[in-house]
Structure formats: structure tokens, C-alpha cells
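Support request from a user on the community tier.

User writes: "When I paste my C-alpha cells into the form, the page sometimes reloads and wipes my input. The last time it worked, I copied everything first. Here is what I submitted, just in case something in the input itself triggers the reload:"
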């Protein structure tokens, strides 16, 4: 093989190794990188050597460094399986995007999503996923109501016995969403730290959804009520595949309602743990629920969790930051300021 061809071959190997590592396959470890760089250096020396070099000076038994230290087949950790995992994740996220995170999913969509999740769970690369899931995550798909990713609703389910009570709770959650159909669910996040799980659930609803203004007809006005429902739970225990949660508080942050915003920012919240403690004293048979939130798949890009009934929640990674979101910059004006700004830009330039 010519010198130029050798250099091109080795450089191609480096490029392919780097590209494949980005797709979740074999990584270019320091050992492999040193071998490849050494091979490049030898190839460059060969390319720069004079044509009249004495071939007899080359030791016949010497082996190229890359052939000596890298086994091109056995040193790769099953690239076919890694590529299959990437394909499964892409298929699942593509399906999630096409059905609004599961809110508009057909029975066929749900069945396909569950099949993809089962396949990913069987390929979980992390031996103890619940111990390595800290960070900020955004909900990408669920086969149930999105708000059930909140520890508040998990605790509500944990109070119910399996069977008829669990079915009634499912029905209640479905009716709860139907009653709030006028609202739009925004981003749904979980922030998992060493000792807490914070759920952030953004909601938007029309402030004046229905009006009748003859002769203009009926319709709504472009004012919205915005806010984020923040539920905080303590992580009481960690298992290799599950988090044991205990609800602490529920509060609304970032509300754009004047006056109410000041009250909420002053610390108004629902102290669920304290209320549960009072119930424990009054009702001896009652105990604060501690739902188990399973983590069945986790890597640097994707996390799959299940509640106690096996309902699926698929999250995509945002950042490793575990601090709660700061909503102090949200304006409490029902969106009037944004509306006026838009009118001025459109009509006045």
C-alpha cells in the first residue's frame, strides 16, 4: 500500500471511530487513540523518507503498531446492538413528536411506544439507573395523562389499593384532564437531585376564552393565564432501579395574574407532608404515602420511568443542573404587555 493511501486509511479510521462514538457505539479510548496516532506518525515518516531508502534497514519481523495493539473485531463492543439502541430511541422520539407526547396517541401509537420501551429497557446500559439519573429532564412521552409524572399524583395513586380503587383513580385523572381541556400543557420537567425530585408543570389557559361582541361575532380575547405547578418530593430511599418518594409541597410559580402573583411569591403553598402528618395523628390507620418511581432505562440522552402501575414516562436530558427553575422574571400582566408590544411592532414598525 502506498504512503498516501496508508495515511488516508488511518485518518478515515479515526474519523469513523469518532463519528460512531457520537452515535452511542464504540468510543475512541485513550489507548486506541495513542495507537492510532502512533500509526499516523509512522506513516508520515514513511511518506517523508527519500525514495532511495534502503529497504534492507527495515526489520522483517516488525509489526505495525495499530495491528499489534488493536483487535479491529473483538475490541468493538457489539456495534450492531448499539446501532439498534440508537434506532429504537429515534423511533420512540419520532412517535412521541407525532402524537403530542402521547396526548393525541391512537391505540396503535400506544402499542408501538410500549413495544419500543420494552426493547430499550432490555438494553439498559446502566446497571443501577436510579442511582445515576440526577439532572434536569423534560417529559417527551407518556402512555397516560402527562400530569401523572408529578409526585403529587403518584402519592394520590399510592393511597389507593390495587384493583377497583386504582381503576377509579385512573378514571378521576381522565376526568380531571377533560375538565381542564380548555388549558394547554406546556413543558413538563423533572429535576432529580441527590435528595429531591421536583416536578415542573407549565400550564396556559385563555383568560377570556368566550365573548360575544356584535357585530364582530363571538370568540376569545388574546389574554392568557400562565403559571407553573411545582411539586417537590423528598427522595427517602434509592434502590438500583427505583426512587422512593415522599411529597413535601405543591406551589404555583411564575403566575402572570396580578395581585395573586404577590401572594404566591410570598410563600403560599400546600404543605402536603405537614397535612399528612396531622392525618397520621388523627387517623391511626393512615400513613403518608411513599410511592416508588421506577427508573428502567437511563443513559446520557434518555430516561424511562414507570409508576407503580407500570405507566410509562419517557424523558430527554436537558442539563446536569439540579437547581429549581427561577420564575422571578415572569411578568404578572395577563400577557397584556406582550400583546401591546406585538401591536406596536406590527402597526407602527
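"...and here is what came back when it finally went through:"
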Amino acid at each position: 500500500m502506498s504512503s498516501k493511501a496508508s495515511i488516508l486509511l488511518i485518518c478515515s479510521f479515526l474519523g469513523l471511530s469518532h463519528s460512531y462514538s457520537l452515535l452511542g457505539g464504540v468510543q475512541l479510548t485513550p489507548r486506541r487513540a495513542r495507537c492510532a496516532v502512533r500509526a499516523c506518525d509512522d506513516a508520515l515518516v514513511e511518506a517523508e523518507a527519500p525514495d532511495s531508502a534502503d529497504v534492507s534497514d527495515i526489520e522483517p519481523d516488525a509489526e505495525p503498531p495499530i495491528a499489534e495493539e488493536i483487535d479491529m473485531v473483538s475490541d468493538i463492543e457489539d456495534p450492531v446492538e448499539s446501532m439498534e439502541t440508537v434506532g429504537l430511541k429515534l423511533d420512540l422520539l419520532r412517535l412521541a413528536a407525532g402524537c403530542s407526547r402521547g396526548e393525541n396517541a391512537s391505540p396503535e401509537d400506544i402499542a408501538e411506544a410500549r413495544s419500543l420501551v420494552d426493547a430499550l429497557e432490555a438494553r439498559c446500559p446502566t446497571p443501577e439507573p436510579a442511582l445515576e439519573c440526577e439532572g434536569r429532564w423534560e417529559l417527551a412521552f407518556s402512555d397516560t395523562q402527562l400530569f401523572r409524572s408529578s409526585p403529587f399524583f403518584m402519592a394520590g395513586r399510592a393511597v389507593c389499593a390495587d384493583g377497583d380503587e386504582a381503576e377509579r383513580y385512573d378514571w378521576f385523572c381522565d376526568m380531571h384532564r377533560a375538565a381542564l381541556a380548555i388549558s394547554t400543557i406546556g413543558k413538563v420537567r423533572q429535576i432529580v437531585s441527590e435528595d429531591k425530585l421536583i416536578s415542573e408543570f407549565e400550564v396556559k389557559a385563555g383568560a377570556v376564552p368566550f365573548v360575544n361582541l356584535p357585530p364582530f361575532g363571538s370568540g376569545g380575547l388574546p389574554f392568557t393565564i400562565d403559571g407553573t405547578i411545582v411539586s417537590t418530593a423528598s427522595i427517602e430511599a434509592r434502590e438500583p432501579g427505583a426512587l422512593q418518594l415522599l411529597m413535601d409541597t405543591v406551589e404555583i410559580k411564575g403566575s402572570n395574574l396580578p395581585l395573586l402573583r404577590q401572594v404566591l411569591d410570598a410563600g403560599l403553598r400546600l404543605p402536603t407532608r405537614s397535612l399528612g402528618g396531622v392525618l397520621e395523628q388523627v387517623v391511626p390507620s393512615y400513613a403518608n404515602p411513599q410511592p416508588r418511581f421506577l427508573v428502567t432505562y437511563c443513559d446520557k440522552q434518555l430516561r424511562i420511568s414507570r409508576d407503580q402501575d407500570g405507566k410509562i414516562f419517557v424523558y430527554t436530558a436537558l442539563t446536569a443542573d439540579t437547581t429549581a427553575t427561577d420564575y422571578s422574571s415572569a411578568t404578572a400582566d395577563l400577557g397584556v404587555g406582550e400583546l401591546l408590544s406585538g401591536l406596536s411592532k406590527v402597526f407602527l414598525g
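Agent notes: The reload is a front-end session timeout and is unrelated to the input. The longest helix spans residues 3-22. Residues 1-37, 43-58, 64-77 have pLDDT under 50 and may be disordered. Escalated to web team.
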